[in-house]
């Protein structure tokens, strides 16, 4: 058997993930006697498999990745890989997962040995008894006592399914690690983009997934702001490259038992600007009672996120969490036939305005909200922001509600939900003092309704810039201004 390396240095091929790497290495190399179990989850395409492969390589551990095959083939592949790992003359053949898992328990008597089973939900599709086998081996390993030091890591996407499948194993795990998506600043570094506005545009198309960055299309990086349109045509709209089809595969990879076509249409409704269950039901022309289940399915798979309206907590607004999925439903899917007939350049010429209105504009607003909770310093809004969400302020009969893009709330002297700021986000509009007056009017209306606005500051977020008069108001402390440079480099 291969010996563990003297150190478990973080691989240079691994982008970011310092904290996750340190946690996994500490678990895998923990010298204390006795077995241990870790559960690694998170959305797809965030580098979980690569991270665990690098871990086993650095620590002399064992990695097994699931494929969508029958149980007998999975067990045969597992036996073949274990024989290569141990140097055995011939592989062991098991008839069930319980026997296979028991075999791994005998490998860690002298030193801690990480054993990774990746793609756990996929294995369960063909082996429904696998979760109970895992629970049994976990229990037996703990009862075996101090002689065994196996470090069993169970990995899979679809987090709610992982919790259901593993049952008591998840509650007794020694480590539960969730690999979350990289943030927009990490995304800019991942794609080696220095220009903040260009970084925002690229992030609106492909997000910050390492899977897309190391896709064949990811080898092509926009040369600068003027190259963005050509880059879209060369890569994400190019039928010869797999990135064009990746978004559709995201849905296909999720578990069976749900209407994929209806889920695609639900995502299309959200991409078209329908953010509430009622609006989505109207778009689909389906009974309103069907939509909550569809949204729950998509939420469980990490494809959509629902956030209460900042001013009407009883109203939940949904957004697509994977940028490429939003781009696909707004731009690619409606033009898939045209792409084959006209080519990427012609399609993009007509779809560019849809990208601006339906993709990058709401994406920019979300990035601004992420900046508030992730990067804004205490001095920006006073108390530390706790939430930043969109809100819709109702007005009288016959008047449209006022939409507020960034509503910031925080905790003040133990009182939660205190309003700290209201702000508007404009992607392609230079903002002026009238935008400030709009936010001041919102604060006045909120005060009339009994909201405490004494700590609230108006804010303007713009990717196109601010007028000199608005900059002067900022200098007087009358408004918070946030541009792309501050999003990526400031507090």
From TrEMBL:
Keyword Transmembrane (UniProt): no
The protein, known as: ATP-binding protein
UniProt keyword ATP-binding present: yes
Single GO MF descriptor: ATP binding
SUPFAM superfamilies assigned to the protein according to its UniProt record, in alphabetical order: P-loop containing nucleoside triphosphate hydrolases (SSF52540), Winged helix' DNA-binding domain (SSF46785)
Keyword tags: ATP-binding, Nucleotide-binding
InterPro entries: P-loop_NTPase, WH_DNA-bd_sf
Matching PANTHER family: ATPASE
UniProt organism field: Streptomyces yanii
